[in-house]
Each structure stands twice: as C-alpha cells, then as structure tokens.
C-alpha cells in the first residue's frame, strides 16, 4: 500500500467513526486565506502568554502557533482531502441503505451530521478570501447559535467586562460548549484586580538597578559604588525600600553578599505583587479551562507573571548597562527609579529627551498622559508641547481631552506654528470677549477644524493667511481694544454718557429735581417711586459704554472665528473641485472635511470615475447612470436579457403607513444620498470608514441601487442596497434603520422589502438569495453578502407605489 504524506489524513485506514471525529476538528483561516484543521490540545503556557499579551482585540487573528499548537497538530484543508472524505461518505451512505431498518436509521442520522459538516468545509474552501480582515477562528452556524445562547444565559452584556466575550469565543473554539460554561462559572469567582501594579513597576525598576550594581562590582572600586548605593537608597521611598529588602541589618556582610540578599528579597517582592490586570486573570482561566487542567488560576498566573517580571528586569538592566559610560546616566537612573515601570517600553524616547536636556518633570508629564513616543523627537520638544497645552487650558480651550491627537498634529513645524498662533490669539483676547458662548465656539474650532486643517497644505495655508489678516483688526494688534472701544462710542454710548453727566437731558434734570425734593423731605410717594425708577435707568445708562464695548468685543471675536471657518471651507472646496463643492454646498464644514479625506484616499482610476460621475450628474440629473461609459456594455446586455433598465434606474416612489405616521420609500436618485449611505447610518461605508471607497462604486454602477425610506419630515430612517447579479437576479443586502422605535423598525423594514420586491417585478428581475454582481469599472467594492428575502412576490404587482391604509400621506404614483 502506498504510504500517505504526513499532512494528510489516512482516510482508507480510518473507521467511519474516526473519520466523523476528524471532520469535527477546529477550523481556522490563516492570513493568506488558507483554511487549516486544528486538532489536539494546546500548550497552556504558550496560550496564556499570547492571550495576556495580544488581548482580545487581536484574538480573532491568532495563528495556531500562538494558540499553543505545534505543526503536527494542524493540517491544511485541500480539495484532495475533501474529495477523499466525500468518497468515503458516499460509500458509507450506500452501505447504510443495504442494512436493516433500525441500523439504517441510526446510520442515517450520523451521516446527516457528517454531510452537514462536509458541506460546511466545502463552503469554507470555496469562499474567496484575500483580505486580512477575513481570517480568524471559524465556527459554523450551529456553534454560533450555541455561543450566542450561552452568552445570553450567562448575561455577558451585564458583567461589565469588555474582554469577556472574546475570551469566551476562544475557549468555545478550543474546547466546546461545556468548557465555555465552566469558563463563565470560573469568571464569576475571580477576585477583583489588585491596586499594586504601580508598586510592582517600582520594584521592577529597583531590581533592575540592583542588577546593575552587581555587574559594576566586578570592574569598579567597592568604595565608590558603596557611596553611590547609599545615596541612591536614601532617595527611595521608605515603604518601597522596606519592601525591597534594602533596609535592615547590614553589618558582618560584604557588599557583594549584601547586594545578593537584596536582589533575592526584591525579586520575591516583585513576584508577590499582583499583576493588577484583569485581562491576565481572564487569560489564565481561559488557558486552564481550554487545556482541561485542574490547577488553580492564581498558580498559573503567578508562574507566568514571574517569567514576565524576569524578562522585564533583564531588559531594563541591559538598557542601563548600555547607558553606563554615557553622560546623563545619573538623571536616567533617577527618572526610572521614580516613575512607573511603563517607562521601560518608551525607554529610547526617554533617553533621547533626557540626553537632549529636557526636564525630568516634563518627561514624566508626557508619560503620565500616555503620550509615550508621540513627543520628544527632534521637532516636537516635550517642554514646548507641555507649555502649549497649559496655555490652552488657561485660556479655557480644554486641549487635554484630545492631547494625543494634538501631539500627532504637532509633528510638523508649520502645524506647530499654526496651533501655537491660534492659542496665543485666544490667550491675548480680553476676558470680556471670552463669554461662555464665544468660548464654546473657540473650543469647537480648535478641537475640530484646526485639528484636521494641518493635514492638508491648502487648508494649512488658509489658517496661516487668517492669522496674518482676518484675525488682526486693521491698524491695530490683536490685544489692542482701542478700535473696539471707538466702535462702542460710535454706537451711541459716548453721547448718552455725556448727556447724563452734563444734565442736558430731560430725565437727568428731572432726576436732579426729585433728588432735591427727597433731600428736603417734601417728596410725595409717587415722586419717590419715580425717583427710584429714574435712578435705575441712570445706572443702566452709566453701564452702557461698558456693555457696548463687551458686545463689540464678542462680535469681533465671533466674526474673526467665522472668517477662519469660511477660509477653511473655501480651501476644502478648492481641493474637492467645483462639481463636488456644489453638491455639498449645504452640508456642514465637518462633512466637507470628510469628503476631502475620502477623496484623498482614491487612486487615479477612482478619481477619474468620480469626475465622470459628477460631470454626468451635473448635466443629466438623476438619470446620470444611463450616460456613464462604464455602464454601457452592461445596459445593452441587460436589455437583451429582458431587464427593463429605465424602470430599474428611475422607478417611482411609494408611501406606506406605520404605527407612528407615514413614510416614503424611493430609490436614491440623488448622488449625495448615495455617497452618504454609510455616513448617515454609521456603517463601514462611511466616508471615514474602512470601506469608504465602495460608495463610489455604488454611485457609478448601473447594476446597483440604494433604496431609502424617509419619514414625513424628509429625514432618512432606513437604507438598503440592491444589486443585479451576474445571473440577472435581484440581490438585497442588509437594511439599516435608525430614528424609530423597535415596532416601527420592523414595519419600516417590511415596507422597504415590499418595495424592493415590487421594483424587481417592475424591472422584470427575479429575487434571489445568492449571487454576486459584476464589476463594471474595476474599482473597489465591498461585498457584504446578500441576505435572504422573506417573500418572493410583491403584495400588489400592479402598482409600484401604494398607500398602506394611511390617508395622510401623499398620493402613490403608479408604475408607467
């Protein structure tokens, strides 16, 4: 008999029960698109190490080696393997047909399970996957239903731990439902996380420094090292020194033996500290349960933590030894000893900043605010950026809420100059000009338009021009309020003040007369009431110049800020072009920014297609798809197959009633509605989403349509993508609904689907649940996979639009 290769199943030597068991092996899709079968049990230590470091956000992209499986436990899913298994299954089915009725019935149930599993493996093998987003831990529909039921019964959404569902999926994939249930039970018994993580990091740094002293004993005089150690130990906190074993009896011990004892005591203290991280505890429990081990989670977590501590200390000591002969070593030791151990991961940045003369408190400030390596390079100095943030906070701009984004934006010199100029301008404004309303406008401008304006040279130049012209009143500096006070006098405040003081006004003379009567005691009660009223009016008139100056100041600041926003919009519209700028002229500035970023992501072919779409839309209106060059071949072929293209591309709308009112369903003939199909419903097709360029294909291709549902006020409440497949059938994709209740959502989705079925009937297209549309331009398109239709016939084939029992909506339009 010919021997089989090591990476293939010995199909002919296996019993059918063993074959069925092997088919139930775990399935995992690799980064290159291949599907592999994974068997056996993983190594718990390697599994724990990768889970605790990688985190659940990357758990769907773990390779077999990262999960603790060796190469002999994995096997690629190939066409030959599937063919041999299918041949064995067919032979078993023929054998079962010849058996007695009871045996045949038992065998038939087992064969059905094997056949479903084989079909699932065939589907995985034939599914095209070339993107990295398509690999991970694979489970079939039955397993997914079991996992969802387990999550609902355990109440994962109520436990408040974001990492729990990811770990539960890993355990389920590794060991099945019972293991996932045991994992959920063990999770509920986990103790709360420790607060000693900072002490652990400080002990790690102390242990690394002790290792450095031990290395230096072999090459340097003991007297000098002893003095350095004593000086260094005196600067440490007392509780830390006591816990690390640095305090106590020191007589009758040489310096090497004393250091050895201190190293052992400090290492023991480090290992006794809790990891302080919830993900480590979850990873330990997941590794134990998945590998079917009965050890305590704390023991495995402690063993893993000791190895991590050893690696951390060894790395820190090696870095310190490399810096030993260089100047500034003392400052580096002081910094690492006084800060948390997370500084080790940004060691190069810290060393560079300290060697360049940065202050220790500035470097610590950067680490405390999780800036890490974002500051400290040759351009962005830590001290400069800290002063910028403090100045912005003192002006009320609240830069700390987005300090990491501002650190990324300040990497270039021109961007730093622009942001610094805006903060200085706000700081020099008088307090009267920074009212709460004006300050909200300034904060919104800095955190929004100013933050993204530095990404494009054109918008950056617009801000620079504004700083030189629009932000400064003509003939005065920014902080000179003389111009604004003159404007206040010109508004009438000065004349009113002069009239009151000189007594030439009738009310002023009356006020003086009533004062004299009140002083002599001859004023009547009505005269006293009149006197009080005139006194209040006089006080308000006296404050008129001050109030006028404040109002003019605030108006000037708001006008200058609006001039900046107008300049940014003009620069963005020049980047977008005349056609696209005209299309989004009524959209806010933030939408203009999204379109600018979306257009910058396109390649040359997509930009040419966008220009053609915009030009045809400007010339032909809603029927622009009929005139695009990329659609002509498909339109001719579709008409030859009997598709009514014009009814498909320009159908009438329909109205329907629901429990909260009425709504209208129609195809989005407007180009802007198609481009915003993802942005309005916050999907991956948003202009800033991962599949943002797919909306251009939906807007250009004639075999794709977007159906909208609008409420009685014209606001979009639902959206569904349609496509005609290569076989000439109608495919429907996920329907997204927003802004309505749960009951109305079901009604809206049903009405949208009814409209789509009527559209298929009017266009002479058959609805289908599977298929793929043709690519007409070669541009990127995201296939979200069609969803099955709940009905295949329209409720009213004679009318495309009809009113569903509600008389308040507009009249339906009959199909022509």
Instruction: Please state the average pLDDT score.
Output: 76
Q: What portion of the residues fall into strands of 2 or more residues? A: 5-15%
In which order are the strands of the major sheet placed?
5-6-7-8-9-10
Largest sheet, strands/sense/barrel: 6 strands, mixed
- What oligomeric state do these chains adopt? single chain
Helical fraction equals 55-70%
> Runs with pLDDT <50, length 5+?
1-14, 55-59, 130-135, 474-481, 490-504, 801-816
The 3D shape can be described as: flat
- Beta strands, count: 10
Structural class category: alpha+beta
SS element count, helices: 34
Distance between the termini: 72 Å
Q: What is the alpha-carbon Rg in Å?
A: 37 Å
Question: TL;DR of this structure?
Answer:
The protein has 816 residues and is of the alpha+beta class.
How does this model look, in words?
This protein has 816 residues and is an alpha+beta fold. Among the domains are: 11-138, no CATH class; 197-273 and 294-324, no CATH class; 423-576, no CATH class; 629-767, Aminopeptidase (3-Layer(aba) Sandwich), CATH 3.40.630. The protein has a six-stranded mixed β-sheet with strand order 5-6-7-8-9-10, with helices on both faces. The protein has a four-stranded antiparallel β-sheet with strand order 3-2-1-4, covered by helices on one side. α2 (44-54) packs antiparallel against α12, α20 packs parallel to α26 and α23 (482-502) packs antiparallel against α26 (544-576). The longest helix has 33 residues, at 544-576. The two termini are 72 Å apart.
Give descriptors for this structure.
816 residues, alpha+beta, 6-stranded mixed beta sheet, 34 helices, 10 strands, 7% strand, disordered N terminus, disordered C terminus
């Amino acid at each position: 008999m010919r021997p089989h290769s090591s990476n293939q199943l010995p199909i002919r030597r296996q019993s059918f029960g063993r074959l069925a068991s092997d088919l139930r092996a775990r399935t995992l899709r690799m980064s290159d698109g291949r599907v592999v079968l994974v068997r056996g049990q993983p190594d718990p230590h390697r599994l724990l190490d990768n889970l605790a470091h990688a985190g659940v956000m990357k758990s769907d992209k773990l390779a077999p080696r990262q999960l603790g499986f060796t190469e002999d436990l994995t096997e690629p899913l190939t066409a030959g393997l599937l063919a041999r298994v299918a041949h064995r299954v067919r032979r078993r089915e023929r054998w079962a047909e010849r058996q007695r009725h009871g045996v045949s019935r038992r065998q038939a149930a087992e064969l059905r399970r094997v056949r479903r599993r084989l079909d699932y493996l065939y589907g995985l093998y034939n599914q095209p996957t070339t993107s990295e987003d398509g690999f991970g831990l694979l489970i079939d529909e039955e397993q997914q239903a079991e996992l969802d039921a387990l999550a609902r019964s355990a109440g994962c959404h109520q436990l408040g731990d974001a990492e729990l569902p990811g770990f539960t999926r890993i355990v389920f994939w590794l060991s099945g439902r019972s293991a996932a249930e045991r994992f959920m039970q063990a999770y509920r018994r986990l103790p709360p996380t420790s607060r000693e993580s900072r002490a652990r990091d400080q002990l790690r740094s102390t242990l690394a420094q002790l290792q450095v002293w031990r290395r230096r004993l072999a090459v340097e005089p003991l007297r000098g090292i002893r003095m350095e150690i004593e000086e260094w130990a005196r600067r440490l906190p007392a509780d830390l020194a006591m816990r690390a074993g640095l305090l106590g009896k020191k007589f009758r011990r040489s310096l090497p033996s004393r250091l050895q004892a201190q190293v052992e005591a400090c290492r023991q203290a480090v290992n006794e500290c809790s990891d302080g991280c919830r993900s480590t505890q979850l990873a330990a429990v997941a590794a134990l349960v998945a590998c079917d081990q009965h050890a305590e989670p704390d023991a495995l977590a402690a063993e893993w933590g000791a190895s991590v501590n050893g690696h951390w200390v060894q790395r820190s000591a090696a870095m310190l030894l490399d810096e030993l002969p260089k100047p500034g070593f003392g400052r580096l030791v002081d910094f690492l000893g006084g800060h948390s151990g997370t500084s080790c991961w940004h060691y190069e940045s810290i060393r560079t900043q300290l060697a360049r003369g940065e202050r220790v408190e500035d470097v610590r400030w950067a680490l405390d605010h999780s800036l890490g390596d974002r500051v400290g390079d040759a351009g962005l100095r830590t001290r400069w950026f800290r002063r910028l943030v403090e100045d912005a906070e003192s002006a009320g701009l609240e830069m700390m809420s987005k300090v990491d984004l501002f650190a990324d934006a300040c990497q270039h010199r021109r961007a730093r100059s622009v942001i610094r100029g805006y903060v200085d301008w706000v700081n020099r404004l008088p307090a009267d000009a920074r009212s709460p309303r004006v300050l909200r406008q300034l904060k919104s401008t800095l955190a929004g338009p100013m933050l993204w304006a530095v990404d494009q040279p054109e918008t950056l130049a617009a801000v620079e021009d504004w700083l030189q012209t629009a932000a400064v009143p003509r003939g005065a500096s920014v902080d000179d309020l003389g111009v604004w006070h003159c404007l206040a006098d010109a508004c009438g405040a000065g004349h009113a003040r002069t009239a009151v003081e000189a007594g030439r006004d009738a009310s002023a003379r009356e006020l003086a007369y009533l004062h004299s009567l009140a002083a002599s005691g001859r004023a009547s009660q009505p005269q006293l009431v009149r006197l009080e009223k005139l006194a209040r009016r006089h006080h308000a008139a006296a404050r008129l110049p001050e109030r006028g100056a404040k109002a003019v100041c605030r108006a000037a600041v708001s006008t200058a800020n609006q001039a900046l926003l107008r300049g940014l919009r003009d620069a963005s519209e020049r980047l977008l072009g005349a056609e696209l700028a005209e299309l989004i002229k009524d959209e806010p500035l933030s939408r203009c920014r999204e379109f600018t970023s979306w257009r910058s992501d396109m390649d040359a072919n997509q930009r040419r297609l966008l220009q053609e779409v915009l030009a045809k839309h400007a010339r032909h209106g809603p029927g622009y798809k009929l005139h695009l060059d990329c659609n002509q071949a498909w339109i001719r072929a579709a008409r030859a197959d009997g598709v009514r293209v014009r009814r498909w591309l320009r159908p009438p709308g329909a109205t329907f009633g629901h429990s909260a009112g009425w709504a209208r369903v129609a195809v989005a003939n407007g180009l802007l509605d198609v481009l915003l199909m993802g942005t309005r419903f916050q999907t991956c097709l948003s202009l800033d989403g991962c599949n943002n360029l797919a909306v251009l294909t939906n807007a250009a291709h004639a075999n794709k349509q977007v159906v909208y549902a609008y409420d009685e006020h014209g606001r979009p409440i639902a959206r569904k993508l349609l496509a005609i497949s290569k076989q000439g059938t109608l495919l429907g994709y996920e329907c997204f609904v927003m802004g309505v209740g749960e009951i109305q959502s079901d009604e809206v989705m049903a009405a949208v689907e009814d409209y789509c079925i009527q559209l298929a009937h009017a266009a002479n297209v058959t609805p289908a649940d599977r298929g793929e549309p043709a690519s007409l331009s070669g541009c990127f398109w995201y296939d979200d996979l069609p969803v099955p239709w709940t009905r295949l016939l329209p409720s009213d084939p004679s009318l495309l639009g009809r009113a569903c029992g509600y008389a308040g909506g507009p009249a339906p339009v009959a199909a022509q």
